[in-house]
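User: What would this chain look like folded?
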Amino acid sequence: MPGLDICELTGTCVECARKALGDTCARCPERSRCDSALEGLRFVKSLEPQLDVFVDVSRRVVSKAEKYGRIDIAVAFMKSLMGLVKALRSAPPQAAFPAWVAAILRRDVVAKLARTPYVFAGDFYEEFKWFCAEFGCRGLEIPLSNLLASILSLSLIEGVADPSRYFNYA
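Assistant: Here's the prediction, encoded as structure tokens.
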């Protein structure tokens, strides 16, 4: 989606709306949720020039997972990658990556991954090489590829295609 414009896509801009509302916004009981939305919008807008690469990489990753009936797990993984990109802005990869893994995966899943044999016969190195070159996470191509392949393998072994079994989100 080259030239993606989040404000145009959503039909509004939280930042512009806040300026127009002025003091009304300051008294709103939903202020903290709006603050969070504004922070997220600013982060996504900072990535706009690179989002077409994210979309292309996501399509390739999802296509490989589709052969195994694990589209939803691949989509959940790709969505979570923006958290890693954000973490890398304030921490080096050796600190950001393990913290990100702990944040996105359920604790019982992390414990199982080290013992999970690969039954997923694919690899995502090329996709994550492209992703990392664009988003500044060089050196994490292999860990990202291995992590996703391990999650997919565990999912196949357990026979569970529901991403909520593996990822920490409501």
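The chain has two domains: 6-48, 50-165. If you want, I can go into more detail on any region.
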